[in-house]
Specification:
By secondary structure, this protein is mainly beta. It is globular, with a radius of gyration of 26 Å.
Length: about 575
């Protein structure tokens, strides 16, 4: 379908939903508040079909329908889940489908054909296969479980939206309770693009602010009265971005609660999208309690494209990590063009183990919080454990003796002004402290109140640090400035007293917005500036950091970057 036609259909659907949302909401609320005993109906596991749908009854109170044919609008593609009835209540927005991206017919330019097939496997499993261009997607039900097991396998990257996500949309009255930072109800209009909104009281909301670091969550979802709908992830080995990747997860509007599982997203992406790997995850209905981890090992019996069984996988273990800073947690990450994995290092001695890895050669990084402090390669073989031995950390910039240091070398801006808020609100939010705190005085000021987490060309484009030197310290010195991300080529230029550095090059960073949409996670980069002793004085010295870029922009969309740390050390 042509793009303009899809947009028209999408707008028309929104109008229809808005016109009927009042009655639908009241009906939904009444249905959702009935007791489970009242709404439960006798059901039998199995698959049925008609001209339009495959209908799967899980035998556990969940009955769902997969659309067989395109309904003629962009929001209702063949392959979509068109109905999700749990204990007698419909949880699927009837005007839109639960789908990959914006519909299976709009993944690849010039390809709209979608093939949907369903079959019963044995007596206890129903498997639905959706094929569209380079995508194979699965919906799988097992007798007696209120779950939909899913798998997504791409042979090539979708090129219409350059992303891969599965999104489920539920009428808001059924599931009203989701993350507050991404709840758009009560907002007064967009303040940035069409996805960041302001509240009348000056607070901000956006779907982007539901983000969490990938390593920190096992499930996402929302709840209503006596009900929860969750998507539980597996190891997420096919994503691109590593253990600290952040992206949108939820959005609540006046119409829907939207739950988005990122299969492999284009926003804030620091590495190419991984293809030819099966990404598995599970939609779970329950009573609203936190879902337990889901066992997906049995999916290996179903002949899924890209499935790699445990016998064909390997592991890496390390006896210890030495040279750690005990104030920080350490993560060990593994990545190549095929897959990614990570594991936590033990807090006592740093030993670690990563299991279930697809064979291959990986770049292994040891992270001090989010900063890579050791990098090496390891090779994983099927059915074997690679011994990484003892890893001695030698690349931690925080181990160097510094005349002074502002912040911590840990790959995050958390310790600076607003550093704890940037993931869940817009920089203009009234809850943010001022981005222009005045001069930072070494020995008197503190990072939490004296130095901003972010610097933008058009907001706080010049920052000043004042520091004193003794006669014995007037020697060649090196200023190190670390950033975790940058937007529009922003980077710092240094001046100390009358000495001015050359313009440093721009760092390699994601091309999308990041600093205003809840993530500081890009590519950690250190800039070094060597200051001649002749430019330093005994007593007070003045450092000026200026945000520069060949690009321009206004306010928080001007070139900028996120700070990790900065310090002054003797020139090596």
């Amino acid at each position: 379908m042509h793009m303009s036609m899809r947009r028209t259909a999408f707008a028309s659907t929104l109008c229809l939903l808005a016109a009927g949302c009042g009655d639908a909401g009241n009906t939904a609320a009444a249905g959702a508040t009935r007791t489970l005993a009242t709404v439960a109906t006798a059901s039998a596991f199995g698959l049925t079909q008609d001209a339009s749908f495959y209908t799967i009854d899980t035998g556990a109170g969940l009955v769902f329908k997969v659309r067989r044919l395109d309904n003629g609008v962009s929001t209702q593609s063949a392959g979509d889940i068109a109905s999700l009835v749990y204990n007698g209540v419909e949880y699927q927005d009837q005007g839109r489908g639960a789908q990959v991206n914006s519909g299976f017919d709009y993944l690849y330019k010039g390809i709209s054909a979608v093939d949907v097939n369903a079959e019963t496997v044995g007596s206890d499993v129903v498997k639905v296969t959706v094929q569209a261009g380079g995508l194979t997607h699965y919906y799988i039900a097992r007798r007696g479980e209120a779950k939909i097991y899913m798998g997504t396998y791409f042979t090539s990257e979708p090129d219409t939206l350059n992303l891969a996500r599965f999104i489920v949309r539920v009428p808001i009255a059924r599931l009203p309770n989701g993350p507050a930072p991404s709840d758009l109800r009560g907002t007064s209009g967009a303040i940035e693009a069409s996805d960041v909104f302001g509240m009348p009281n000056g607070e901000t909301r956006s779907k982007h602010y539901s983000n969490m670091r990938l390593k920190d969550w096992q499930f996402i979802g929302a709840t209503g009265t006596n009900v929860g709908l969750w998507i539980v992830r597996d190891n997420n080995e096919g994503n691109s971005g590593g253990p600290f990747y952040r992206s949108l997860l939820n959005q609540a509007t006046a119409t829907n609660q939207e739950i988005t599982y990122i299969v492999n997203y284009g926003e804030g992406q620091t590495e190419p999208l991984r293809t030819k790997i099966l990404n598995t995850y599970t939609m779970v209905f329950n009573d609203g309690s936190a879902p337990a981890p889901v066992d997906t090992s049995w999916l290996g019996t179903l002949g899924l494209a890209g499935w790699v069984g445990p016998e064909a996988r390997g592991a890496v273990s390390g006896a210890a990590i030495t040279g750690r800073d005990p104030r920080f947690a350490y993560t060990v990450g593994f990545a190549n063009a095929t897959a990614q994995y990570w594991t936590a290092a033990d807090a006592t001695d740093g030993h670690f183990a990563s299991t279930g890895m697809i064979p291959g050669t990986y770049t292994m990084k040891v992270y001090k919080n989010e900063l890579a402090v050791d990098t090496r390669t390891v090779t994983v073989g099927a059915g074997a454990t690679t011994d990484a031995g003892t890893v001695a950390v030698t690349g931690d910039p925080g181990s160097a003796a510094a005349l002074w240091r502002i912040g911590e070398w840990d790959g995050t801006p958390a310790e600076f002004i607003n550093g704890g808020k940037v993931a869940t609100m817009h920089p203009s939010d009234v809850r943010m402290a001022s981005w222009t705190p005045g001069d930072y005085v070494v020995g008197t000021s503190t990072p939490a109140t004296g130095f901003p987490a972010y610097q933008w060309k058009d907001v706080n484009g010049t920052l000043t640090v004042r520091f004193n030197l003794r006669a014995s310290q007037v020697v060649p010195l090196r200023l190190r400035v670390g950033i975790t991300d940058a937007f529009a080529g922003g980077r710092p230029k240094a001046q100390v007293n009358g000495w001015v550095s050359a313009n440093p090059p721009a760092s390699t960073q994601p091309s999308s917005r990041t600093l205003t949409v809840g993530t500081y996670r890009g590519n950690n980069t250190m800039y070094t500036f060597d200051i001649p002793a002749t430019e330093l004085v005994v007593g007070q010295n003045v450092l000026t950091l200026t945000a520069i870029s060949g690009s321009s922009g206004i306010r928080f969309l001007s070139p900028g970057y996120s700070y990790d740390a900065l310090d002054l050390i003797p020139t090596p």
